[in-house]
Design brief:
It contains eight helices and 17 strands.
Length: 396
């Protein structure tokens, strides 16, 4: 008789365990039926209050967007039972607070059920948050892709056809968008304005400033101001845009080419020196004539004029070219000048391709650490009669 009673008790116990597992399985199915965080948490609260007949339940946690409570809960009451939810790394995501009815303690079955439910809720909550992050990342990536397309469209889409000259540029951002800026503007008098600039920093903030810089430059250029006056005006307007913009100061080098006379004028506002290589092998630097734009108010700049005879070439670039790395070794300006000077082709695009290959070979496939932009102007036509008169003239 005793054996029969024991067997019956074991059968009942097994039946109860099966029922608990079935209940937990159904609860797990409901919890994992959604990928939205709020829906996951609300389904858990409903299960706790309806299936276990608790007085109430709530979730607390610093990352919860709103108060989630089902039924009546007094978090300060001593009878409230707390069940923490942890992610895969053991970080606490939230707490489930359960209020038993009539202030009683939880039974062993209720505690086991809640611990199993909490484990499933932890997985579902982490999955929901990861899904939300993935959706947000995809949206941000989509916006960045659109921003990259817009920024690329703001680069010169058509190069001016200058008889006797070859003009080309190359630009590659470190991230989706960058702070390098390059522009080529044909003026009504037949001269060509060239500018290469670099906004401090990288990424989206710098890209926004570079777009603003483009608008300011084009507006100043349209007034017909002298080159050094354009730089002076842009410095002051950038400074007056406020602290955030000042932190994104701009180094820039402006150049004006008169194709008829072979005159080249340049203003360097705190930028890397430009280089003019002449057919006799001599190299001139276009050094900085003032601070970067927007760094100090009231700055004035001077322009430098030089001869640009047939066979000459001009290189303007951003520091992403010289600051390319292979391990701890920097490509540097000396290597850049050396490759630029020894480059055999005369056409601008071929020269740029040569420089890019030299940098890529140096980096040995390493990641790009900064935006890279360069412009090359090469004179391949007959010399102008005015060439000999343009040597070292400066305008203040």
């Amino acid at each position: 008789m005793a054996a029969e009673v024991q067997l019956t008790d074991q059968t009942i116990d097994l039946q109860q365990q099966v029922a608990r597992l079935q209940a937990l399985l159904e609860a797990s199915r409901q919890v994992h039926s959604t990928i939205h965080e709020e829906d996951v948490l609300r389904s858990v609260l409903r299960l706790v209050v309806r299936e276990l007949e608790m007085a109430g339940a709530t979730f607390t946690g610093p990352e919860l967007s709103q108060d989630l409570t089902y039924g009546s809960v007094d978090a300060e009451a001593g009878t409230a039972q707390r069940f923490p939810l942890y992610d895969r790394d053991g970080q606490r995501m939230a707490d489930l607070l359960v209020m038993p009815p009539d202030g009683r303690t939880l039974t062993l079955y209720e505690s086991d059920f809640l611990e199993g439910l909490t484990l499933q809720a932890s997985v579902a909550l982490e999955n929901a948050r990861n899904h939300k992050r993935n959706v947000e990342f995809a949206r941000v990536q989509q916006d960045l892709d659109a921003a990259r397309s817009i920024q690329r469209s703001l680069l010169p889409q058509r190069l001016p056809d200058i008889s006797g000259y070859s003009l080309g540029f190359k630009s590659k951002t470190c991230y989706e968008v960058g702070g390098d800026y390059l522009d080529i503007v044909e003026m009504p008098d037949g001269t060509i304005l060239l500018v290469v600039a670099d906004v401090a920093g990288k990424g989206l903030a710098s890209a926004i400033v570079s777009v603003s810089f483009r608008s300011a430059f084009r507006a100043a250029a349209s007034t017909g101001l002298a080159l050094h006056e354009i730089a002076t005006r842009m410095n002051q307007s950038h400074w007056e845009e406020g602290d955030e913009t000042r932190r994104r100061y701009v180094t820039a080098i402006f150049a004006r080419l008169d194709p008829k006379t072979g005159e080249l004028e340049a203003v360097n506002a705190g930028h890397n020196p430009g280089y003019v290589l002449r057919p006799d092998g001599s190299l001139s630097q276009l050094d900085a004539a003032g601070t970067p734009l927007g760094l100090l108010p009231g700055m004035s700049y001077s322009s430098e004029r030089c001869a640009f005879p047939s066979g000459s070439r001009l290189l303007l670039y951003t520091d992403g070219l010289t600051e390319a790395f292979c391990g701890d070794e920097e490509f540097g300006s000396e290597q850049l000048i050396d490759h630029f000077s020894r480059c055999q082709p005369q056409m601008a695009d071929a020269i740029l391709d040569t420089l890019w290959r030299a940098i890529e070979d140096f980096c040995k496939g390493g990641p790009q650490s900064d935006d890279m932009t360069a412009l090359v102007l090469s004179r391949i036509g007959e010399p102008c009669t005015a060439d000999s008169d343009l040597v070292g003239e400066k305008a203040a």
